[in-house]
Every structure is written in structure tokens, then in C-alpha cells.
Design a protein that fits this description.
With 299 residues, this protein is of the alpha/beta class. The protein has helices at residues 11-16, 76-81, 99-107, 131-141, 183-194, 257-279, 289-298, and strands spanning 22-35, 40-52, 57-66, 110-111, 117-118, 122-126, 147-153, 160-161, 169-171, 178-181, 209-210, 231-238, 241-249. The chain is 26% helix and 27% strand. Helix 5 (183-194) packs across helix 6 (257-279). It starts with 10 loop residues before the first helix and ends with a helix.
Length: 299
Amino acid sequence: IRDYSIGYIPDETSEEDGNGQIVLITLAADLGGIMSSEIEDVRIDWEIVAHAANGASYSINHGSCGTFKRSRTMTKKEKDNDSSRNRFTYMHGFKNSVWPDLDSVIKADIPSESGDVYNVKLSLIDTGHFTKQAYEFIRKAHTPDNWVFGIKGVPEQNFRRNTKDVAPVKKSPNVSNLYLLDVEQLKDELANNMKLRLTDSGGQESGFMNFPEQSEGKYKLKGFFKHYESETRKEKVENGESVGFKWDKKNTSVENHFWDVRVYNNSAKYIFIDLIKRTEPTRYKGLTWATFVDIILAS
């Protein structure tokens, strides 16, 4: 936890930390809830992340659009009031549709410590569930200034082999606005980032995660950081040696939404670089995060 404020881009803090300029702002959203013939009750969990030049990150804000909450995680007071609360839907065009709230978050100006104004450049929307409604939002929300793409995790049937060598993200060959994620690999990356500590000289390595001061009920252990403890890495052992792994929830009652959302935000760097490459394939062939940063700093 750092001493910068929720809802502000810590551009001056990033420079002071030795991480360089803030070069990309991303948002990731995880869709949850129920849509059936009997009940509609949904919630979108989201987080905005600022990516610094050296690969360190700063969480800017997190929140939820909608109302859904699993009964086993409700307090007694929430259960008593459950029947009277307003429920949200993923259906578009309805008064209680959740999508306008998310659209407002994506397109809002974000102030910074220096007085500059930033905007989310790339938003990633989970399409593993409520797929039709998610794609409709993506088509409407995507603009030249605010790129909005769908993502879908590609789970392993049993476990991911250690010898598997693929990119963490892949453009879908069938859907133009969709990226497929190697979720096991990305979860490993996030777990490794969580272990990072300041260097002996006080610096931060690529992947180091910074979070703002707790306020407004946000960035608390129970409602946010507990999600980072929701899954465990299970090893696949053959002949006494580890040959693979798979990430699973520790149990069915834990909430892992903000863990998933950070996995998606980490994938955003790879997706953004791939999208830049596609704008001018010849010019940007071989583009990496480091060379992208060099271009930004030189402009």
C-alpha cells in the first residue's frame, strides 16, 4: 500500500520511484451473476491499472457495477433486505442495465498528481459468460480513443505442461474483437509478481505492483486483497518430477473476481503491443514493451 490517492494517476510517484513515465492505462472487467428465466441479478467487477515504463504497475481504482452477491457471502442484514433490493441485468436498453455504469467508468477522465488528465486506452471484458451481451457492449463501446476488446480464458483440460511454449495471449482467428488467454501462464506470472520485493537499492522490478491508500471502503483485505489468496497452484507429478500445473480455487466459497481482473490487466500489456503491431505490421514488426516505451519517450 502506497501513499497515493485512489482515482489519481500517480505519474509523479512513478518518476520518484524510478519507474519512469506512465505509458498505458488499462481496465479489466470480470462478469458475474445470474441470468435465467426466473431471475436476473448481475455484477461486473473492474479495476483500472496504470503501467509504468519499466513494467511496474499502479492500481488506480477498483469497483463493481451491479448488485449480485452470492447468498453464502451475505451478512444477515443483506439477506433480510435481499428481496427488496433493485437487481441489475446484462440486457441492453433496460433502465437497470449494468452496461452504462461500466461505460462511464471506461470513458471518464482520470486526474493525475501532475495535473495532467489521463484516459483508459484499452479495456478488456470477460466474455466467458453472458457472451452475447458482452459482445454487444464491446461493439458499442469501442472507439478510436477507447479500445474495448473481449477476452476469453483457454483452460487446460487437466494441467498445463511445463514444456508448453506459447504466447500468453492470442488473437482469435474467428472473432475480430476477441483475444484468447493462456490463463495458467498468466496466473503464474501474477503469482510471481506478488512475490516481488524492493531491490537492495530500493527500486522496483518489472511486474512490481503498487496499490493506493485505503479509503472509501476500497483496497481492504476482505473485499479486495483476499481475492489474491483465492486460488492455489496444483502440481502434476510424474515419476517423481513436476511436469505441469493447474490453478484452482481453494474452495467453492472463496471469491476470486479481483484476482481474475488483475490477470486480465496483466494480459493487457501483451494485447496492446499486439494491437499496435497490427496497425502497421511492417513498421512495428518485432515490437516489444521495451521498444514501445522507447517510441513513447522519444515522441
